[in-house]
Amino acid sequence: MGYLAKTDRIDARVLLQMSEVINQHPEREKYIRPMPDAHRQILAAMVARRRQLTAMLTAERNRLHPSHPLSHASIRSIISALKGELARIEGEMAIHIKKHFSELSELLNAVKGVGTATVAVLLAEVPELGSLSRREISALIGVAPVNRDSGTMRGRRTVFGGRASVRTALYMSALVGTRHNPIIKEFYTRLVAAGKPKKVALTACIRKLLTILNAMLKKNEAWDPMYHQHAS
């Protein structure tokens, strides 16, 4: 930018110039996260709280066996309380989804491997689902392989960034799908047989599952095994 010095005033000027360049991007609007409506905000709060409770429950369970026996009663008491609160949040979440997102949840739940928790995360944290192309939605969540090339060097393709919490939920769904969803299972088996590392194959399954769900919502069509012919 031609600046040799660094001050708060210079930093502000550089950031202003960068924002002006970004604002001129012809497809800028496509990458701005839409503001969630009131119902989605409530669901997002429930999903976040469920995630917190799950993390606390895991932490308490991990403390149980290394702890002194005198601490076990206290830890079990906390575990019981967390289980109760988790069940309460999940119950409220199910009622909220049924009341405000019933059609979308029915479409998503019909896909084998996609459970209630994943549906809640998708509804709360991916309002763009069904409105973007398969490449755009994959990049948004962070499961699109990114090139690392320079000159004649061809780097290893990697995935990173995106929405980690959504990626985690889809990971579990894809993992279940490799066993119980015929489309994902066949895709995973074929990639592993071709020599792909299992982690790479599973990431590809996450991307395939995401693009299938995106296509379903875009067309407002129910789960159909024929989706695997054009989802990748």
Detailed description of the structure:
It comes from Kosakonia arachidis. InterPro entries: Transpos_IS110, Transposase_20. This is Transposase. Residues 106-188 form the Transposase IS116/IS110/IS902 C-terminal domain. GO terms for molecular function: DNA binding; transposase activity. The protein has 232 residues and is mostly helical. It has two domains: 35-100; 103-149 and 157-232, no CATH class. 66% of the residues lie in helices and 2% in strands. It has nine helices and two strands. A two-stranded antiparallel sheet has the order 1-2. Strand 1 (149-150) and strand 2 form a beta hairpin. The two termini are 41 Å apart. The model has no long low-confidence stretch (mean pLDDT 88).
Tell me the Rg in angstroms.
22 Å
* Unreliable stretches: none
Order of helices and strands: HHHHHHEEHHH
Indicate the structural class: mainly alpha
Mean pLDDT: 88
Strand content: under 5%
* Topology, number of strands: 2
Strand ordering within the main sheet: 1-2
Structurally, how many domains make up the residues? 2
Main sheet, how many strands, which sense, barrel? 2 strands, antiparallel
GO molecular function: DNA binding; transposase activity
InterPro entries: Transpos_IS110, Transposase_20
Organism: Kosakonia arachidis
Protein name: Transposase
Task: Give a short summary of the structure.
Strand 1 and strand 2 (153-154) form a beta hairpin.
